Amino acid sequence: QVQLSESGGASVQPGGSLTLxxxxxxxxxxxxxxAWFRQAPGQAREAVATRGKFxxxxxxxxxxxxxxxxxxxANDTLYLKMNSLKPEDTGMYYCAAKGSGDCYLGSSFxxxxxxxxxxxxA
Length: 122
Prior knowledge:
This protein is mainly β. Helices cover 0% and strands 44% of the residues. The chain has strands at residues 4-7, 11-12, 18-24, 33-39, 46-51, 57-59, 67-71, 78-82, 91-98, 111-112, 116-120. Strand 4 and strand 5 (46-51) form a beta hairpin. The chain starts with a strand and ends with a strand.
């Protein structure tokens, strides 16, 4: 399985911005279906955004218009740009990947990173 490594998590104030990064151990893997998930304390992990092989993107309703999932032009790094952050965006953010097939918020992902913590508070 591909190894994924996230970075970029931090503590920010409400209204702030952060960009998370996800690096894969295999080149070209980020051309497949990849996603960002998050898990708040005491809550189930939820899919935040997915990016399919041909660039199709899906976002959970709570982040639409604020978050953007994209791949770097010069590398295989996957990013999650987060603007207008809210306290409810707090949680551990995970990068995930899967091979061929469907690529939606409800898809089953086979490779996971260790997570990076995002905390939004005044």
